[in-house]
From TrEMBL:
It comes from the Bacteria. Pfam families: Adenine_glyco (PF03352). This is DNA-3-methyladenine glycosylase I. Gene3D superfamilies: Hypothetical protein, domain 2. Transmembrane segments: none annotated. It comes from Marinobacter halodurans.
């Protein structure tokens, strides 16, 4: 496995220097900041990720103020009670993205998020307390508990929310293969464990969050 300094040097060379590389790193919230965020923030981010899937992200981001206004700031206690008639009314609003399947996730996910929050003292606290060496487990949990959070969506929701996580994009997987961490896409338990261990080792070597390590890895391949 490559030492992280080699990966960082390669990424910096491609970015145009250390300063340019730093400017391309995603934002990561410390655990205490994540735990302090309201549940409405996480439901909004989760729903935005659901709408971003398969669509141009800038289009969704431009429409998001209208979503926030229409859906009462994404307060889970209110949205878990949304009726079919209210969702049908949302389908008539040209300021929103009128996708029935995605709109119907809102009350279901609001209810799940509310229940987790009540049991754990806040949804942000729950995410912050999940062990960093079991991110595959967190992704799987999100996929089981919430609608349309399977595949890459769980990890991308966490990234969008600021919860530290790596992503397994095609570029990252290629970089992991080039770094002799895995031989193929990590679908087997042993390969996922190898990926976890590699990221933990690189974090210990660099002091950087997983999100930054992941982004640098993606920049080392063509």
């Amino acid at each position: 496995m490559l030492a992280f300094q080699v990966i960082q040097d390669r990424a910096a060379a491609r970015a145009g220097g250390a300063r340019a590389l730093a400017e391309r790193m995603p934002a990561v919230r410390p655990p205490e900041a994540l735990a302090a965020l309201p549940d409405s923030y996480f439901l909004s981010v989760m729903t935005r990720r659901i709408f971003q899937a398969g669509m141009k992200h800038s289009v969704i981001n431009d429409r998001w103020p209208a979503f926030e206004a229409w859906f009462w700031g994404f307060e889970p206690e209110k949205l878990m009670l949304l009726s079919e008639e209210q969702l049908e009314s949302a389908m008539q609003n040209p300021e929103l993205i009128r996708h029935w399947g995605k709109l119907r996730t809102i009350p279901v996910n609001a209810g799940e998020l509310y229940r987790v929050s009540q049991a754990e003292g806040g949804f942000g606290r729950f995410l912050a307390n999940w062990p960093d060496d079991d991110l595959f487990g967190l992704w799987a949990w999100l996929g089981r508990r919430f609608q349309r959070m399977g595949g890459q969506s769980g990890a991308r929701f966490l990234r969008l929310a600021g919860r530290d996580t790596f992503l397994l994009t095609d570029d990252v997987i290629a970089a992991l293969q080039a770094s002799n961490v895995i031989d193929s896409k990590p679908t087997r338990k042993a390969d996922r464990q190898a990926v976890n261990e590699a990221f933990v080792t690189w974090r210990e070597q660099s002091g950087l969050p997983f999100a930054h390590i992941s982004r640098m890895l993606s920049m080392t391949v063509d």
